[in-house]
Every structure is written in C-alpha cells, then in structure tokens.
Design goal:
This protein is mainly alpha-helical. The chain folds into 3 domains: 122 residues, no CATH class; 97 residues, Helix Hairpins; 134 residues, Rossmann fold, CATH 3.40.50.2300. It has 16 helices and 4 strands. It has a 4-stranded parallel β-sheet, sandwiched between helices. Strand 1, helix 12 and strand 2 form a beta-alpha-beta unit. It is rod-shaped.
C-alpha cells in the first residue's frame, strides 16, 4: 500500500504498531470522517485558520477543501487530526483496550444500534488493529446510513412543508373564529350596557313617581281632614262643594299616578329579567369548556325544561335565592324574586305577580299581607301558584318539577287556566 493507504493486516495487528494519522488513512475514509465527525461550523472555523474563507464559499466548497487537504500532511490536516483526537478522546481510549478485529466489530455493531457512529468510526479507522476488511465494513455501513439519512431528510422536509401549509390554514381559521367571537362578545356587552342604562332610567322614573304618589296621598289625607273639619263646623254648601271637587280631582290624579307606577314597575321587572338573561348568556359564552361541563351537570338528567316560563319566587331564605335562580335558569326559565315584604316594597308585589307565568310562595318567610295578596291575585287571575310551607331547596325543586311537568303538556293558549287546577291552599 502507499503512504496514504491503511497499514497491512499483519502490521496493524502488532501490539507495537502505532495508530495511523488522518493523512495516512485510505483516501476513501477522508470524506466520511470530515462529513460525519465534524459539524459545518467546526470545519469553517478550522479551514479559516489556514486560509481566507468568505461567505461566497458554500458548505460543499468547504467540505471538498478539507477532504483534499487530508491527502497529505498539511497544516489543515494536522489541525483536523488534532481536533479529532481531542474530540473523541474517550472513544479512542475505550477502543484501544480492544486488541482484535472481532472485538472492534462488536463495538461497532453496538454503536450502530445506538445511533452513535462519529466517535466509534474515528476510533476504528485510526485503530492499530483495524484491517482492510473491517475498514470496508465500517465504510459501507456509514455510506448506506448517509443514503438513508438523506432519504429520511427529504421525507421530513416534505412532511414539514405540509405541516407548515396546514398550520397556515388553521391559523387563518383560528383568527377568523377569534374575530367572530370578539365581535359577538362586544355586541353582547354593548347590549347589556344599554339595558343597564334603561334599567337605571326606569328605576329613577319609578322613584320619582313613588315620591309624587306619596306627596299626593299626603295631600288627599290633608284634604280629607280639612273636609271633615269643615263639615264639623257646618261650612257653607259652596265651600263643601269646592272641597269635594278638590278631593275628587286629587283622587283622580292619584289614581292616574298609581296606574303609571304599576306600568313602570312591570316594565322594570321585564327589563331586569331580560338583562339577567343576557348577562347569563354572555357569562356562558365566556366560560371555559371545563366550567361549562360542570354547569351542565347541575341540571338533573331527567329534568323537564320550563321552555321560557317566568317563575316568581315569593319569600325564601336569602342565601338560597341564587340556587333557586340557578335551578330555574338551567331548565330554560326566567327567575323573579320578591322577599314578601321583609325588606322590599310590598306594593311592588303586584307588578312582579303580573309579569310571572307561575308563582312559588314560601309561606314560612313572608308577611301575612304578602301571603293574602299573592293568594288573592293568583286566584283572581287564574295564575299557577304553589304554597310551600318548608322553605328548603328540596321542596323548591319538587314544586319546580311539578310545574315543568304540567307545563310541558299544555299549549300556550292553555297556560292561563293552569292556576286553578294546580293551586294548593
């Protein structure tokens, strides 16, 4: 063999033989050693130490330059050999402990199975016991592996291109969904804000008319007192007639104001219900998927829907009101509450009763006045009403099930006659 060829089998099997240098290896070994054992950044750095390397030189140019320099001992081949010895020192020490070809071949198979070939390849190529048959075996394995890697790289590039295209499509779809959701959320927020403004205006208007009605009631009472005093003093017929007319005018104006107040209270209740429905819908849209699942699980599996029925709850424990509301709204109903005159104005009971489709009256937690008002108005209007003596959640749920079951079998035109057959005294 020449100076660049691998040493003979007898010489390399000798215990005193030294390890060959990079430029002493067979020329066909230079390409896999440079291509596998070095990264391109490392090659550029080493080549740059002995010659000028510009950005115009591509990776292939640098690779060919390094391979050609390994044919003889040059400054560049010496730098490459020194770097190989430093970089793969541990592999060299491990493989030098093996003194036969069979042991080297076994280590190479192990390295191939583990996917670690750079260090083992250099340790075998530069081993004193490496035969030409072993060299050809390692060279062939590396050569075929490079083909496989190239083919795999092309497949990965194609898959990567497909993923990039799919990602672009999904990104556009996601952006469109986000835009539509943002638009929907903004519309709902604006609608809720508008209803809140209307609700505030209705409340202010109702307070104004309540104060005006109180003032007229006081004036009527004062006129009645004056009339009684004047009649007691036997006033003249003209004075009596004037006072009676004034009293009638004041009573007529008071009646008009009461009618207006009732209309405003009814509009207030309807607005509050609509506002609450929108707020619930908006909260449900903004709720994460795991919380929506939990919210759905609150409804019993066999629960009958209320189909938009407005349920008025009169009385009940204050801390249980949110749970009553949740039970009604989860069935598709609208929930209205009045505490039965404990803290709320008892006069507002008339308007909320008019706005409700059905009434659940917690008799243990309301005033006597509220009880008789509920009973009298429901009986007079034929509105569905149930009286519950025990203000518990189970009692409320049982009555709600009965109400939903009865309403599910009735047409809209028959809802007005539900109260007489369902009312429990």
């Amino acid at each position: 063999m020449s100076g660049r060829s691998i040493m003979s089998t007898d010489l390399m099997s000798s215990a005193s033989s030294r390890r060959p240098r990079l430029w002493e290896l067979n020329q066909k070994c230079h390409c896999p050693v440079i291509g596998v054992c070095f990264g391109m950044d490392e090659i550029r750095k080493l080549v740059g130490k002995v010659m000028n390397v510009s950005t115009q030189h591509n990776d292939f140019d640098i690779h060919v330059t390094a391979v050609c320099a390994c044919e003889t001992r040059t400054r560049l081949s010496s730098l490459l050999h020194k770097e190989l010895e430093r970089k793969y020192k541990l592999y060299i020490q491990r493989y030098n402990k093996v003194k036969d070809v069979a042991g080297l071949l076994a280590l190479w198979r192990e390295a191939m199975n583990m996917g670690d070939i750079a260090g083992p390849m250099w340790a075998i190529f530069s081993h004193a016991c490496c035969t030409e048959q072993l060299l050809n075996t390692v060279y062939g394995d590396v050569h075929m592996l490079q083909h496989q890697v190239g083919a795999g790289h092309r497949v990965e590039q194609q898959a990567h291109l497909r993923l990039v295209q799919e990602n672009a499509i999904l990104s556009r779809e996601l952006a469109d969904i986000q835009n539509r959701f943002t638009q929907y959320r903004d519309e709902r927020v604006l609608e809720v804000a508008t209803l809140n403004e209307q609700l505030t205006a209705f409340k202010n208007d109702m307070i104004f008319h309540e104060n005006l009605a109180k003032r007229h009631n006081n004036e009527v009472d004062h006129l009645r007192e004056m009339l009684a005093d004047m009649l007691a003093d036997v006033a003249s017929p003209e004075d009596n007639l004037r006072l009676v007319n004034s009293l009638r005018n004041a009573e007529s104006e008071n009646l008009v104001l009461k009618t207006k107040l009732d209309e405003l209270e009814m509009r207030l209740v309807e607005t509050e219900a609509a506002n609450h429905l929108l707020e619930t819908e908006l909260a449900h849209k903004l709720m994460p998927e795991n919380e929506k699942q939990v919210s759905k699980e609150i409804i019993p599996i066999n629960a009958v829907p209320l189909n938009g029925c407005t349920v008025l709850c009169v009385g009940g424990m204050g801390n249980a009101t949110p749970r009553y509301r949740k039970l009604v709204e989860n069935r598709g109903g609208v929930f209205i509450h009045h505490d039965g005159g404990i803290e709320e104005n008892i006069n507002r009971l008339k308007s909320v009763l008019a706005a409700a489709d059905a009434v659940i009256c917690q008799t243990g937690c309301i005033s006597h006045n509220a009880y008789w008002r509920v009973k009298e108005q429901c009986k007079r209007t034929g509105k569905a009403c149930s009286f519950v003596a025990n203000p518990s959640l189970n009692s409320f749920l049982q009555v709600l099930d009965e109400l939903a079951t009865q309403r599910s079998g009735l047409a809209d035109a028959e809802c007005a006659s539900l109260g007489t057959s369902w009312q429990a005294n």
